[in-house]
Amino acid sequence: MEKNNQLISGVLHKAKGEPNYTLRRYFPSPQLANLVEQYWLVDWDLPVGSQHVQKNLPDPNCHLTFLPNKCEFLGPVSKVYDYTMHGQNGIIGVKFKLGALTPVLPEPIEYYIDTVISLPNFLHCDLASLSKTLSQKDNDKARVHALEQALEPLCDYVKVHHVQQLTALVEQIKNNDDICTVEDLAQQSGVSKRTLQRQFKKNIGLSPKYLIRKYRLHNALALIDQQPNDIHHLVNKLDYVDQAHLIKDFKNILGMTPGAYIDDI
After folding, report:
1. One domain, residues 108 and 128
2. Around Cβ 34, how many Cβ atoms within 10 Å?
3. What is the pTM of this model?
4. Which GO terms describe its molecular function (predicted)?
5. Range of the domain at 51
6. Are residues 64 and 164 in the same domain?
7. 86 C-beta neighbours (distance < 10 Å), count
8. 41-67 burial, b for 16+ CB within 10 Å, e for fewer?
9. How confident is the model at residue 265 (pLDDT cuts 50, 70, 90)?
């Protein structure tokens, strides 16, 4: 079981929030590598009467989460997602590969954007039984093993080529600061603009234009952590036309201005 120690992005006020919880991430086994991107487990133990609200700007992947007596499917998240932690508890999560679940979803992926479904019946496994099994495991290795056993039948439905192509396209957006438009992505990937728009709509439910804006904000959050008082640096570094465009993205996607975000660091 290999730990995922890659840099975490899209976590709001990351340094401020990290003391409140413990997060572990693991890569799937090779057999599930085209279905699952990672397993994630987070625990917290907060003083009585206190709470921590963690806000994230997640990747557009689907997730399956388990808490005691609770199992939920989370569709792609389009804006900020927040979760309130209190007392002592934890979550076990599965982050699916982009497009991996398209063949088994009863509705088009856009139907599930910003949607939570309890005990979904389309994942070809007994989630109630899996939830009970996970609650009886006392270590990460046993929990991940139980998840892999239960989810392996889903691998038969995955269209591997589509998943790998979609993953590569989104990785290009995430890792290239010079991709600022869909035209830039089309040029660098060799995939036409129309095909990009069609594939993203079918398998992610969000447009490539939106994801380019979203991942620029991921970069903005990381830069603010490094230099919290320099908005002009963000505009230049992320190649925004001007400060107004940066503020507009913050408001539309994060629900606040850069100044308000900095004030809360």
Report:
1. yes
2. 20
3. 0.91
4. DNA-binding transcription factor activity; sequence-specific DNA binding
5. 14-156
6. no
7. 14
8. bbebeeeeeeeeebbbbbbbbbbbbbe
9. low
| pLDDT class of 196 with cuts at 50, 70, 90 | very high
d(CA 17, CA 44): 11
Q: Using one digit for the tens of pLDDT, what is the confidence trace for 125-177?
A: 999 999 999 999 989 999 999 999 999 999 999 999 999 999 999 999 988 88
Which one is predicted more confidently, 45 or 243?
45
Q: How far is CA 248 from the centre of its chain?
A: 22
Q: Give the 3-state secondary structure of residue 78.
A: coil
Q: Identify the CATH number of the domain in which residue 251 sits.
A: 1.10.10.60
Regarding whether 164 and 123 lie in a shared domain, the answer is no
Distance CA 245, CA 67 (A): 39
Residue type, 13: H
Residue type, 96: F
Domain finish residue from 132, 156, 180? 156
Q: Does the pLDDT value for residue 186 go beyond 90?
A: yes
Give just the sign of the alpha carbon dihedral 8, 265, 258, 240. negative
Query: Taking each helix axis from N to C terminus, what angle separates 182-189 and 208-226, rounded to the nearest 10 degrees?
Result: 100
Contact 11, 76 (CB under 8 A): no
b/e map of 223-251 (b: 16 or more CB within 10 Å)? bbeeeeeebeebbeebebeeeeebbebbe
In a shared domain, residues 126 and 190: no
End-of-domain residue from the set 141, 156, 171: 156
